Backbone:
């Protein structure tokens, strides 16, 4: 039996078990799903008041597609970094390290868990959105494919960033708090909540280097009517650029994350976990 | 300590049963510095297949550091180390599959069911199964072995401290390791859990030929479990031998206590057997409540640690070397 393939399979079932366990903890489930539900509620509320922008585009659909991108950013960056920092502290990672190919199984399991959770949350926003939010939907079937590849590529670009930050956090609670704020600032500066063109020029430049703007643009391309494209910076959906920028981030991120994670995992040991435990007890 | 003779555990040595006494664990001149602090100053140790070794020593002596270097979880500063024929720093996954590490659980995998968790970690060992050493253990058999059958469906966070430690042990041995590392395995065990754990260690060593290296602060436990006791003090092994051999290290007399004609007597002697014979010759059946207390492992431990703290650990080690 090939040990790599075997660890992949063990990782898949690990991810599935963790995914199902998420539904048993009300607190964990709320943590994952309050944002999708919040944005869905906002979109439906805007929709029912018939609020629209100056050119007559209903804004409920814009809010919902921005919310979907916002959620993926929070899941990919802050949830991943939080889980990694916590599981380093509590010894989950060390257990994985102690079994042959355990870190591969752990990584696969984590990826499956995050992917399954993002599909669940996206479905929670997209399906009711299709039904109840005007202007939110697929104009043609290829739009559904666009949503799929944008989300997959987006998560591949974001999760390594979360993993890298998570590797450097020594105090999970403190670190997560510190990491959430810049993430939200970047989301704000990337045109997910407010039109990008309102931002100062330098913010627009920074925004277009980071992956978040392109993720949002890709999701709008999939979910909003083509007429909305005129509101974008280039006046079009710029799908090749979306794919290009996200792919570069994903590639660079995956290579860098592998290196950083290996370095971090090498340093895990029983006494390090024990020390973290004593630290945590002191804080508690 | 009690008046129990420190006999260790009764078992056939590998040599006596005709099996080769293969060395599976070896360190020489092992050094470890943290910054400018020298924790290990040249540790030498070996372990043969199927041997149970207890590593004793005061807090901060470097027991955990030593174990973590052998596990491949920590990089040493200097020295040669070989575990199952590989340098732990460069051990591959095949090598990893032959080791067992018992970790202290805290709150990891809290929502998992005990059986699912054990089964999950067992799966990683399946490609490393060999004729004569089927990996992993059957999950339910192993749960029964550590006494967790009734808790199989329970979530890890609902297990008691002792149950959780037994699950840790089960996870550590699920791959049928050839070498098993246990860092303070019985901390927080009640007497029953401790006894069960000792039985498990005997089974692993005798039936599976597992080499076991454990650290403990419980000297009784070391005496009961270990074929050989290593005393780590001041960054070096200052004593290495069976509990009996170690007892011979400190010049301390046995204590004979008896009651004759209603009076309690205490006498220190280096030859308790002769003293008892003489007592019987004088008092005959008038002697009651006879008790002989040999120098205990605790006496040895205290003496060795004190000797080290006075700074002549090296001469202590050298002295023992001559006696061996």
Residues:
């Amino acid at each position: 039996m090939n040990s790599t393939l075997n660890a992949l399979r063990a990782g898949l079932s690990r991810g599935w078990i963790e995914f199902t366990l998420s539904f048993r903890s009300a607190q964990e489930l709320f943590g994952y799903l309050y944002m999708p539900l919040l944005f869905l509620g906002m979109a439906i509320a805007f929709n029912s008041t018939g609020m629209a922008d100056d050119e007559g585009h209903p804004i409920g659909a814009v809010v919902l597609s921005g919310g979907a991108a916002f959620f993926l950013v929070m899941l990919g960056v802050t949830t991943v970094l939080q889980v990694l920092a916590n599981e380093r502290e509590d010894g989950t990672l060390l257990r994985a390290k102690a079994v042959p190919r355990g870190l591969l199984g752990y990584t696969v399991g984590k990826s499956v868990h995050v992917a399954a959770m993002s599909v669940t949350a996206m479905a929670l926003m997209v399906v009711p959105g299709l039904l109840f939010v005007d202007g939110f939907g697929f104009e043609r079937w290829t739009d559904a494919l666009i949503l799929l590849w944008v989300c997959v590529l987006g998560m591949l670009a974001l999760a390594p960033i979360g993993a890298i930050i998570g590797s450097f956090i020594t105090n999970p609670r403190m670190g997560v708090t510190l990491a959430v704020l810049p993430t939200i600032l970047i989301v704000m500066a990337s045109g997910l909540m407010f039109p990008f063109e309102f931002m100062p020029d330098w913010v627009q430049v920074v925004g277009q280097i980071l992956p978040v703007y392109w993720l949002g643009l890709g999701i709008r391309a999939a979910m909003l009517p083509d007429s909305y494209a005129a509101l974008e910076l280039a006046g079009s959906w710029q799908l090749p650029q979306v794919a290009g920028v996200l792919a570069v981030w994903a590639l660079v991120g995956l290579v860098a994350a592998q290196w950083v994670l290996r370095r971090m995992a090498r340093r895990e040991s029983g006494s390090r976990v024990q020390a973290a435990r004593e630290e945590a007890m002191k804080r508690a | 300590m009690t008046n129990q003779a420190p006999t260790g555990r009764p078992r056939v040595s590998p040599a006596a049963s005709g099996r080769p006494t293969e060395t599976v664990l070896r360190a020489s001149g092992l050094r470890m510095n943290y910054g400018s602090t020298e924790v290990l100053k040249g540790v030498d140790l070996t372990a043969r297949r199927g041997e149970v070794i207890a590593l004793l020593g005061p807090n901060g002596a470097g027991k955990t550091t030593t174990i973590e270097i052998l596990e491949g979880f920590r990089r040493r500063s200097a020295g040669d180390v070989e575990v199952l024929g590989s340098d732990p720093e460069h051990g591959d996954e095949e090598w990893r599959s032959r080791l067992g590490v018992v970790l202290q659980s805290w709150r990891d995998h809290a929502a998992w069911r005990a059986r699912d968790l054990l089964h999950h970690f067992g799966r990683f060992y399946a490609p490393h199964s060999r004729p004569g050493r089927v990996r992993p253990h059957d999950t339910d058999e192993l749960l029964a072995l550590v006494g967790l059958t009734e808790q199989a469906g329970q979530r890890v966070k609902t297990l008691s401290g002792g149950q959780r430690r037994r699950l840790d042990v089960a996870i550590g041995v699920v791959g049928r390791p050839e070498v098993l590392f246990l860092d303070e395995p019985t901390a927080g065990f009640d007497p029953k859990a401790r006894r069960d754990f000792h039985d498990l260690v005997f089974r692993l060593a005798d039936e599976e030929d597992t080499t076991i290296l454990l650290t403990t602060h419980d000297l009784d436990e070391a005496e009961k479990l270990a074929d050989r006791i290593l005393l780590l003090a001041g960054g070096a092994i200052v004593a290495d031998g069976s509990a009996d051999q170690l007892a011979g290290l400190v010049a301390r007399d046995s204590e004979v206590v008896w009651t004759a004609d209603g009076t309690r007597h205490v006498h220190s002697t280096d030859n308790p057997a002769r003293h008892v014979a003489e007592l019987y010759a004088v008092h005959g059946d008038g002697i009651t409540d006879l008790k002989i207390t040999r120098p205990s492992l605790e006496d040895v431990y205290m003496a060795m640690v004190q000797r080290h703290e006075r700074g002549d650990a090296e001469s202590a080690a050298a002295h023992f070397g001559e006696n061996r």
Residues 3-283 of chain A form one domain.
